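#random but structural
TW: two for the price of one
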Amino acid sequence: MSITRRTVLAGTAAAAGAALAGPALAKAPMSGQQNAGFHRFKIGSFEVIALHDGVAVRDMPKGFVRNASDADVSAAFAELGLPADKLTITFTALAVNTGDKVVLFDAGNGGAGGPVGNVAKNLAAAGIQPGDVDVHAFSHFHGDHIGGVKAADGKLVFPNAEIVVPDAEWAFWMDDAKMNNAPEAMKGGFQLVRKQFADMAGKVRRQSWEKEVVPGITAIQADGHTPGHTAYLISSGNQQMMFVADITNHPGIFARRPEWQAIFDMDPQRAIDTRKRLLDRAAADKIRLSFYHAPFPATGFVVKDGAGYDFQQALWQNTL
């Protein structure tokens, strides 16, 4: 065989591979554990941390979108590279360190079991212990947002935090008449709200829309998904962002098709109006958004695209 430059290089590569491989190694056991799910970025002088609570995958419910066929919904999920027959939901809370206050938005699923319930763990991994949280603000009272308020023993997970809730949300879920007249499928939601908050009703701050929670953070009307659903505008210097929680489920589905009505939206038309209003504002003013149900780290920008909006993840802009 003639020796050429190609055969020399091939032989060298093979020898190097054999040297690196060395003797056969025992396989490491599979741990099933993930790395800590947090992502830091800056808004002005504020440090913002996206906190991954986990991902839930369940069978696609019939009629998941009230005004679209199941076939069209499955096709929309497949278009994103997601299983067409599954509902894949990501959960991401948000923390903001203003330099004076640590503010946490929502609490995640808590002890729901499975691959969710990681907000407190990931906040600690990011260097903020539960006792360091000064203000715990909520977008609304669905279980995947309030399940992590208390631990299994009933104690507050964030023991030193002032609890701040949307006034309209509290008024709805704490209304006994509304609970008594609610469909059976909703009564569990009322009961969970009471379990999580009723024993501290006198200490909870009920927040009005368009008022500051702390300097630089303002509650924004975003109802429709629930009666008191609230977004939060976060401003520092000449930069701003919004934590928009559940104005969409997966924004790749519902920002692109803002007229679609998810079964989770309690007032579908109001939810559509809110979605369009806030996405229009974000697109026009180039406001960074954090969604609760976008793929982690769930933050980026929207641009107008025909009748809908394209959500573009921002992984590195202003990242620490």
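TW: number two ↓
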Amino acid sequence: MTAKATIPDALKADLPQTKWGKVLATTPVVMTVIATLLAGLSSGEMIRAQYDRSLAAQEQSKAGDQWGYFQAKRLRAALQRSTLDVIRSTAKVYPLDAKLFEPSSASQLALDSLANGTLPSTSPEPVLAEPIAAVLAAVESGQSDEDISRLLKSVKKAAISSALAAASAHVRAFDAALKPVTSDIDALEKHISPMIVPSFTAARLNYSAKRYDAESRQNQVIAQLLELQVRQSNTSAERHHARSGFFFYGMLAAQLAVIISTLSMAVQKRNALWAIAAAAGVFAFAFAVYVYLFV
């Protein structure tokens, strides 16, 4: 809280009714206004720092979910391949021929995907902008936080948000393309003969492994982009926290100017004290402008 400057009537009567006297009388008031302004700026910066910390925590939670999906799907893909190796080592597995199934039992796309081990074609994966790709490469290569932060300064928040939206849209399109194919493959299991069970099972495991690999890569990209948002939010919080401290120090200097300028009116030789108060006030104001513009 800032001190409220009040000038006693006795001091007012003692001040000369000249320009110099008016300057002496108004200096504490001006310094109080500056101190109040700096206190408000300090408080506002601290609130913004707390907001960015809270936002970073929310983004980190979302990133953790995506990393969890990534790990689960990578594990599923590994299990599918491990089971496929066991089948191939214990039974004779022939390539699955789509002609062995009735055309009405499943869509041709599902039959081709199962027989050839290919995923349904969708729109190409979104290409990350060069600045974002550079930051992700720096993270993957284990560069220092200082180097990563320097690269991240050239990336706007809107660019990461746009990349996240594109990646999420691609995931939804991929899921929409997989859903009917997966349903048809599930339905095919009811119409296979015992002679081709090993081949069908192997083909399905191969398809599922590739599907989980593709989905895990998509989750990885989203998780990495969310991690960049976490870094940006934390960097912003640190900046606002530092600005809050600087504005607080400026407020203290302005309050000191209020005290000294008030005392200067109560002494005979007030020029020196007033000069100190004015210097403190000018320093506080100039420092606040510098912090506001450049920090």
